[in-house]
Specification:
BirA Bifunctional Protein, domain 2; Rossmann fold; alpha+beta; binds zinc ion; 5-stranded mixed β-sheet; 409 residues
């Protein structure tokens, strides 16, 4: 893709509204557009990154047999009154009336809606188990939206729901989702931990949180550096007796064994093999997708800009063309790289080299290719590895081989 034809607008100055590193870099690099406090639009660069994250999630959900659906964001309040959670979530729920005076809300979560779907479609134990998930925009009227996508009013979540006929089934699906979440966060390159949690507003018996450490975290865990273990409560480490230190954490995922809490509330049930009516045994599993987006940006940057991990960056490579005579060769190189599955952003603009490099750094693609004088002489392509700051020189074939090794293809 040509930079000159792309909708990419970086900012030279640090945005004044920025509240943390990721917020600053995502605005400055033209990934996000701030609509208002806690509300963001994903510009084409940001949307490419978001889709990379979503594809990782979809791959691991598919591997566990979960099926994707998309529920409505607009929900009638009646479904919430059945479980009583309209009261629990009253402060954060966006509520309003339609022209007929009917009460509606913008979904802050979807347990109620999914159980309505299941109640009207699943009647027999033969249809169970089911795991459904969606990647969707949710709304919570946050009192203090902060840190860009970290604590937003409108945000994207991946939420999955399992329905089983018995507790053994729930245990199995809980484990299955738990391991999928570990795989997803690992593939996103996040240094995460999991810890047993309080279930809070969701209720239910057992739950685990996935968290990443960082200065902008709004939760605190207690940590023993000798044993590398985290705890919910302060005190001394049970293994070595040392005093635990507090560490700021951000929650990026949460899994719950809900059991029958949601399904009993409105007599949602199925017939078992003996013709007896039983409530569904339910689990729910959430990932803060837009939060992951920020969490990745927060820990992957240097003084010059973002440094996306491979597989998450908007493009695999930035190709800086230093002499406009070389554009046909750049296009040829792009073709060769794309045929091997690599995406390339060619900076063909009539700009000074400094401007082009500055933007390549802000965009944070993991590899920067440079073609200029050396290419004119003997077709040498320079490559800069953003993460290690190494520079290498290649001919076309060598470059492709190097990249294939890097990406494990
Ligand atoms: Zn210890």
């Amino acid at each position: 893709m040509l930079f000159s034809k792309s909708f990419i607008f970086t900012q030279r100055e640090d945005p004044k509204v920025a509240e943390c590193k990721s917020h600053k870099l995502l605005l400055k690099g033209g990934f996000l557009f701030m609509v208002s406090s806690g509300v963001y639009s994903y510009l084409p660069l940001g949307y490419r990154v978001l889709n990379n994250i979503n594809n990782i999630i979809r791959k691991h959900m598919k591997a566990k047999g979960a099926q994707e659906l998309l529920m409505s964001a607009l929900q009638p309040i009646e479904v919430w009154e059945k479980t009583g959670r309209d009261k629990d979530l009253a402060e954060v729920m966006f509520r309003f009336k339609d022209r007929k005076g009917r009460d509606l809300c913008l979904g802050p979560t979807h347990e109620e809606e999914i159980t309505e779907i299941i109640r009207r479609t699943v009647f027999s134990y033969k249809q169970l188990p089911v795991i459904l998930y969606q990647i969707q925009t949710k709304f919570r009227d946050e009192p203090r939206p902060r840190f860009g996508l970290m604590r937003a009013v409108e945000f994207i979540m991946k939420d999955a729901y399992s329905f089983d006929k018995d507790n053994q089934g729930l245990d199995k699906n809980y484990q299955s989702m738990f391991s999928a979440y570990r795989d997803i966060f690992t593939e996103c390159g996040l240094d995460f931990i999991d810890i047993e949690a309080d279930s809070g507003a969701m209720g239910g018996s057992i739950s685990h949180e996935f968290m990443v450490p960082g200065d902008i975290g709004e939760d605190i865990l207690f940590y023993c550096p000798s044993c590398s273990k985290y705890f919910k409560k302060k005190g001394k480490c049970p293994d070595c007796g040392k005093k635990l230190g507090g560490k700021k954490m951000t929650e990026i995922g949460h899994v719950f064994k809900l059991g029958t809490k949601c399904s009993q509330a409105s007599v949602r049930n199925f017939l078992d093999q003996n013709g007896k009516r039983l409530p569904f045994i339910m689990g729910c599993y959430g990932i803060g997708v837009s939060r992951i987006f920020s969490a990745i940006a927060e820990v992957n940057s240097d003084q010059k800009g973002l440094v996306w991990p491979r597989g998450l960056s908007p493009f695999d490579l930035s190709l800086v063309v230093l002499d406009s005579k070389l554009l046909p060769q750049a296009l040829e190189l792009e073709k060769a790289l794309e045929s091997q599955g690599f995406s390339v952003l060619i900076d063909d603009r009539q700009e000074a080299a400094g401007v082009k490099f500055n933007d390549a750094y802000l965009l944070g693609n993991p590899y920067i290719l440079i073609i200029g004088k050396k290419y004119l002489k003997d077709e040498t392509i320079d490559l800069e590895v953003r993460k290690t700051k190494e520079s290498k020189a290649f001919k076309k074939e060598g470059l492709i081989k190097f990249l294939k090794d890097e990406y494990g293809r």
